Amino acid sequence: MALFISFEGGEGCGKSTQIAALAARLTNRGIPVLATREPGGCAIADAIRRILLNPANATLVPRAELLLYAAARAQHVDEVIQPALSQGTWVLCDRFTDATVAYQGGGRQLPSATIETLNRIATDGLQPDLTLLLDLPVEEGLRRAIGRNDQDGTAHEGRFEAETLAFHQRVRVVYQQLAESHERFRVVDAFGTVAAVAGRIDRVLDEFLAERGIQL
């Protein structure tokens, strides 16, 4: 049985690192895995990503931002995620629809009904089986994210890091609300070493699989 697992959280929470680590552990157990990300994951969506995350595009209006995310997601789902799941491959995705609810809904304060409609159209109804929310205080996450961007040369993707502290605090609140209202969510404390957080993720995943009687 192929599982679709999304990783969510604010800036600097360590999603990319933990996805790579989990993908390696699953591969070692003989499970076919695809690690991907949003926005992006395929050529067309990656082109949209360059528009969305470039700090030079500071004048991008929230409605246009929302529509671009939806367009990138539609392409990503049809070209990458659904084919992988159909072939029995587990998909680990760095952000999915919940990110739009948190960032464009909570951060940008766009109407939730509009976001819900666009998410449904973009995904054709696809939802993750499990969503791992890596939770971290906003100040710590931004400190990590800004330092990472300066260190690895990804400052060209720092448009959201430039947002106000209040923006990121709204994002975190909405993520917490989503975790409380959706059974597929599991909250993971993102403080600590990479190994410590990975251990928490392993325990959560083992519990999730046991609850559903899935044996690897």
From TrEMBL:
Keyword hit for Heme: no
Organism superkingdom: Bacteria
Catalytic activities: dTMP + ATP = dTDP + ADP
Domain Thymidylate kinase-like span(s) in chain numbering: 7-197
Gene Ontology annotations of biological process type: dTDP biosynthetic process; dTTP biosynthetic process; dUDP biosynthetic process
Entry binding sites for ATP: G9, G10, E11, G12, C13, G14, K15, S16
GO MF term set: ATP binding; dTMP kinase activity
Record-level GO cellular component terms: cytosol
E.C. designation(s): 2.7.4.9
Keywords annotated in UniProt: ATP-binding, Kinase, Nucleotide biosynthesis, Nucleotide-binding, Transferase
Job description of the protein: Phosphorylation of dTMP to form dTDP in both de novo and salvage pathways of dTTP synthesis.
Similarity field: Belongs to the thymidylate kinase family.
NCBIfam families, sorted: DTMP_kinase (TIGR00041)
Protein name, per record: Thymidylate kinase
Lineage of origin: Bacteria, Pseudomonadati, Thermodesulfobacteriota, Desulfuromonadia, Desulfuromonadales
Gene that this polypeptide is encoded by: tmk
